[in-house]
Design a protein that fits this description.
Elements: E1 2-6, E2 24-34, E3 46-53, H1 58-82, H2 103-107, E4 116-117, E5 124-147, E6 150-171, E7 176-181, E8 189-193, H3 200-207, H4 213-239, E9 242-252, H5 256-274, H6 280-298, H7 312-328, H8 332-345, H9 352-371
Parallel strand pairs: 1-9, 3-4, 3-5
Antiparallel strand pairs: 2-9, 5-6, 6-7, 6-8
Helix pairs in contact: 5-6, 6-7, 7-8, 8-9
Length: about 375
């Protein structure tokens, strides 16, 4: 699974624009393997998975109730016929029975990135328990439309539903480590509105009739799609090894006569970020080279000086470069140090939101690295 999004949290170019020396911000792709946030054990990758459908027995109970009713009426009708009496009619069944999905078909839609499903000796096991689709409610909505130039009222339902999944995680010994609801799947989602009717009565009649089944199936399919997405997102975040590509904004300079060192450092940074997922040691070597140059250049900065090679703009860009590089070098103290410097320079608060995002990214990245350290 390849995800791509911009690390705008550390793009500080808009905040440092007071002087003539302007950094040149270039986009550099950095691909890396996002480690699991809650691994069963560091670097555990072999797993088994079990799918349980209708885990709460709701659909089975609904079918059993209907069957019991039919059997009861059938028995009663047999007695009535013997007595020469008119048999009872069977009541219409307007209940909605969720789409029947097999465990095998569901299993094929769930994948833990970077891990291998095995039939024996798994390092961890996952059991996904699908409670299944359920309507949470309908809300009557009144609208209007123009018919032959005349505004006419119409009515529809706003439909909400759930597709709850819970999951268990077990270690290699079969010990239960976690048992919880997955990704908010127990929370009702508000779907699209139904088609409209000229009266609320017609709407209600349609909703409770067989005619509404295609619409209900569509809601069911949407709920399942969202539940599977939630399952894959959480399982991969907690247990998987997903390759992430971030587009970083890395600062360099254009004037080679004045900023040859920073231009060279940019080339080293680009190489380092390129190697993050394929050769971490080589990536670190390149990043350490550019960090050394950026640190040396940053020491030239004098906020009291009006004309200098390292202006406010360039200093801010260097701190941004350093914060990103130190994060991927796993030097959390230096990453924080440079983020603090950026915050101190952001007098107008223009970067508050971006810096908050940077803090969140760094905290998540650090937590994943530490969770997978072998003691």
């Amino acid at each position: 699974m390849l995800k791509k999004f911009t690390l705008v949290a550390l793009a500080a170019c808009t905040a440092f624009s007071a002087f003539s020396q302007k950094p040149d911000w270039e986009k550099v792709d950095a691909s890396y393997t996002r480690l699991p946030l809650k691994p069963v054990s560091p670097m555990a990758k072999k797993y088994s998975i079990e799918i349980v459908m209708d885990a709460d027995g709701t659909n089975k109970a609904k079918l059993a109730d209907r069957e019991a009713l039919i059997n009861s009426i059938t028995t009663t009708n047999a007695l009535l016929v013997k007595q020469g009496k008119q048999p009872q009619p069977y009541p219409e069944d307007n209940s909605y029975y969720p789409v029947d999905r097999t465990a095998a078909s569901v299993k094929s839609a769930v994948k833990i990135d970077g891990c291998q499903e095995v039939s024996a000796a798994p390092e961890f096991s996952v059991k996904l328990k699908f409670s299944g689709f359920e309507f949470a409610g309908t809300t009557l909505k009144e609208g209007s439309s123009l018919v032959n130039g005349v505004s006419t009222k119409n009515y529809s339902y706003e439909v909400s539903y759930t597709y709850k999944i819970s999951f268990e995680v077990l270690n290699a010994s079969g010990e239960l480590l976690r048992d919880e609801i997955l990704g908010g799947t127990d929370k009702a989602f508000v779907g699209t509105k139904t088609k409209t009717f000229s009266t609320a009565y017609e709407l209600e009649y349609w909703w409770n009739s067989e005619a509404s089944k295609p619409a209900k199936v569509a809601y069911d399919n949407d709920g399942f799609k969202r539940a599977i997405a939630a399952a894959n997102n959480q399982l991969n975040s907690d247990l998987g090894y997903t390759v992430i590509t971030k587009t970083l904004n890395v600062a360099t300079m254009k004037d080679g006569a004045v900023y040859a060192d920073i231009i060279t450092a940019f080339a080293d940074a680009s190489m380092g970020y390129n190697y993050l997922s394929s050769d971490k040691k080589k990536a670190d070597d390149y990043l350490l080279k550019c960090v050394a140059v950026w640190e040396k250049a940053a020491k030239e900065y004098n906020p009291a000086a009006k004309k200098q090679r390292i202006s406010d703009d360039v200093a801010g860009a260097l701190y941004a470069n350093l914060a990103v590089a130190y994060c991927f070098l796993e030097d959390w103290a230096q990453c924080n140090h440079n983020l603090v410097k950026l915050k101190a320079m952001d007098k107008g608060g223009k970067l508050t939101h971006k810096l908050e995002e940077a803090d969140a990214f760094k905290a998540d990245y650090e937590a994943r690295i530490k969770a997978n350290k072998v003691n």
